[in-house]
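Researcher: Here's a chain I'd like modeled. Treat it as a single chain, no partners, no ligands.
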Amino acid sequence: MNKFWIVLAHTYWTRFKSKSFLITTGIFLLFIIGIANIQSIVGLFDGDNEPDIVGVIDETDSIYPTLSKSTDQMDSSFVLESVDGSLEEAEEMINNGEYIGVLQVSFNEENLPVGSYHTDQPSNTSVSNILENQLQQIKIAMATNQAGVDQAVIESIYSPVTFDMVPIESADGSTAKTEEELSGARGLVYAMLFLLYMTVLTYGNMIAMDIANEKSSRVMEILISSSSPVSQMFAKIIGIALLGLTQIAIFIIAGYVLIKQKQDELVGGMFEFFGLSDIAISTFVYAIVFFLLGYLLYATLSAMLGSLVSRMEDVQQIMMPVILLIIIAFMVSIFGLNAPDSSFITITSYIPFFTPMVMFLRVGMLDVPFWEVGLGIGIMIVTILIFAVIGARVYRGGVLMYGRSSSLKDFKQAIQLSKKE
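Model: Modeled as a single isolated chain. Structure tokens:
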């Protein structure tokens, strides 16, 4: 057991002190700090933060006051300014940078407003869309007034319909989740999917590269003769898992500190800030369980495959099956966010390679019976144990294989070598 801890500690500290780990962690910390201070950063480039100005040539002598008032109420990024000169003079002011555009308003044959927006930035449609919508509202008000329809009636017609979704108790006695619970759960599911996806790709590949690096330096021959293959394999898996948890913990702590500084007025703290306060504690427990089981499953597979190669450049090729599996699981889960109760999602949630993502998706979005979740967890545990047994044999034989080896057909050769030991 002492040898297990020696390998684990060596794996952890070697990676922890590496330049790649420190640089990657530093870059992500800078990214988190940048996101938390995005408004301040944008303000540095906005100078005095004065809003843009849109000139208005009002040939109706009546539209501008209403249009200006409605635009100001929208708290848009621009303000309107009446233009007394001609359109040519206004366009010259656009070229000089005084205006970002000029709106010309007039009446048509039916005495209703029409407009044309002149700008040297036609790709920026946000301003023109706002002006068009506001002018459309003014046109509707004027048209209904000409027709003798009361404005209050028009506002009542265009007001959104009151529509509520009320969850009821199902036949088995369970109650569907409310919209608030679903919104919070959906955010947690998204976070879990991306976290597991990035973790498997990053740290699974790290495990395979660590093993290939030791094989290329011939250190593996000494290690495999002094400790059991299962002990060595899981020492590396757990060592790199702890490295990943360390990095994730650093990011979470940094994010929490920044949120506390920016959101001291929040009663619920970080959980309320992200809309997670309505999620049941059991959902967080399932998130941890499925994350750890998913990592162990893919890490065991990565260690087994990594033992088949002895050159760093062959790692990516041998890891392709793992990458494809996690990509498929991720895509299935993204599809399942819109249809978590479909038969396809239910079936795939019991496929061990997909269970960590898809079953957690169902747990987060639906009221899944405990026996179904337990069955999924049981299938994963059995699969991990099977991979551990097979992986130990492949690992023991694979670490003794040298030369160019990047094909899955080398499984047989690795197992045969393990029997000779």
